[in-house]
Amino acid sequence: VEETLVLIKPDGVARNLTGEILRRIEAKGYSLVDMKLVQAERSLLAEHYAEHEGKPFYEPLIEFMESGPIVAFRIAGNRVIEGFRALAGTTDPTTAAPGTIRGDLGRDWGVKVQQNLVHGSDSPESATAELALWFD
Ligand code: GTP
Ligand code: MG
């Protein structure tokens, strides 16, 4: 069965939305396989976001992800990678569709990086690599 990495980013943990976000994942019918609270090291975040190195939002993104604890979930289910991306909504929380995690719970806070509550792996290759990075 397919698995994906979901992260509750520091804004989601700080706003006490971990339970609400997990509730949505479980209500959709996906299974929780593993979870942990982590204060991420810069080296871990640099690997996780290697594809964005050099972009203008890269440094604020890494600083934001270092700013507080993150909750990491290993989630399983058929087509869970695309299914969770649909639950999460599009990247910009201001315009993410209502009904999604980002659309219902997120907004623009006037800071340098988009604080959009969650991360979900975007392909089978990134899910495999990211699960190894965060859990193994
Ligand atoms: P992740 O699940 O975090 O990977 O989000 P995503 O897949 O929806 O977006 P992407 O991988 O393209 O970007 C990673 C993160 O960088 C986003 O979640 C945002 O926090 C931030 N980001 C991406 N694009 C922009 C942008 O154009 N401006 C700003 N300020 N931040 C951005
Ligand atoms: Mg991404």
TrEMBL record:
This is Nucleoside diphosphate kinase. It comes from Cryobacterium psychrotolerans. It comes from the Bacteria. Belongs to the NDK family. Its EC number is 2.7.4.6. ATP binds at residues 9, 57, 85, 91, 102, 116. Residues 1-136 form the Nucleoside diphosphate kinase-like domain. Keywords: ATP-binding, Kinase, Magnesium, Metal-binding, Nucleotide metabolism, Nucleotide-binding, Transferase. Signal peptide: none annotated. Its cofactor is Mg(2+). InterPro entries: NDK-like_dom, NDK-like_dom_sf, Nucleoside_diP_kinase, Nucleoside_diP_kinase_AS. It catalyses: a 2'-deoxyribonucleoside 5'-diphosphate + ATP = a 2'-deoxyribonucleoside 5'-triphosphate + ADP. It holds the Pfam family NDK. The active site is at 119 (pros-phosphohistidine intermediate). GO terms for molecular function: ATP binding; metal ion binding; nucleoside diphosphate kinase activity. GO terms for biological process: CTP biosynthetic process; GTP biosynthetic process; UTP biosynthetic process.
